[in-house]
Amino acid sequence: MGGNLSNMENNHRSSKSSNHILTFHSTAKWKAHFDASKETNKLMVIDFTATWCGPCKYMDPVIQEFAAQYTNVEFIKIDVDELMGVAQEFQVQAMPTFILMKKGKVVDKVVGAKKEELKKLLEKHLN
């Protein structure tokens, strides 16, 4: 059932985005994934971002680095202009906003390009 992705998938790298990060372009697909995630105890980090946002671009390589480092955490990228309804649901008011969730519940939140704060919260919620 919900096992780990094989390491073979990690060999196919794309310069645009990392295999460790899921990106959603449809609210329906996001909702289905979100509902399924409520059944697991896996930490989920949602990166609310926008293509025009400078601090978001700064955090891109950071998120890719974290996704490669914390393979037991699910990293998700949501463009606020693309999925406005999802951003509103999570009351996102500034970018980037990182929402940390477990079992469908928000456990923490980082607003802004704060690498160290995000890393600290990742470590906290993994234990």
TrEMBL record:
Taxonomic source organism: Flemingia macrophylla
Keywords linked to the UniProt accession: Cytoplasm, Disulfide bond, Electron transport, Redox-active center, Transport
Transmembrane segments: none
Pfam families listed in its UniProt record: Thioredoxin
GO cellular component, one term: cytoplasm
Domain Thioredoxin: 1-127
Family: Belongs to the thioredoxin family. Plant H-type subfamily.
Name of the protein this chain belongs to: Thioredoxin domain-containing protein
Domain of life: Eukaryota
Protein's cellular compartments: Cytoplasm
